[in-house]
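task queued by scheduler; priority normal; single chain, no ligands, no partner chains; default sampling; output format set to structure tokens
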Amino acid sequence: GARQPATRPHPFDPGHPNTMKPATSEPEQLTLRAADGYPLTALRYPTTAPLRGHLVMAGATGVPQLFYRNFALFAASQGYTTLTLDYRGIGLSRQGTLRGFRMRYLQWAHDDLSAAVETMASDTVPLFMVGHSFGGHAFGLLPNHARVARFYTFATGAGWHGWMPKAEQWKVLLM
């Protein structure tokens, strides 16, 4: 008779070795102090697997850290103690009304994100960072970027309009 091919579990099947195993620990809420003293709220997700490293999630413009919760839980389940944070004026780091609130993107990177790097950096465990959109650009603005062993960025625009569709090019040029 015809030989049947061996079946393997699909990656989303519970029996597959790479299936996400949810973290069982809830995150710890931390208050970080930005370089200029501004208080920031961060969540640290402890690893539920053998420790492979620490990870900082550098979020996009205006995206609250809770958006990255599932990613942080997954990373924690894979051996990475993961820190998410809200930049000043956003999410859990917002203090009261934003009327009259002033901030600069440079502060989000230089002051806020650098506090997260300092919190998670260790001499014995590698520090990784994932940057989404603005978080990808922020890496180049970090005064302590040398403390990060590896950096991954996604959905980070180049700011160059040459490959954009014509209508989008005009919008970018007008801004």
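post-processing summary
- The CA atoms of residues 21 and 97 lie 39 Å apart.
- The beta strands are 28-33, 39-45, 53-58, 80-85, 127-132, 150-154.
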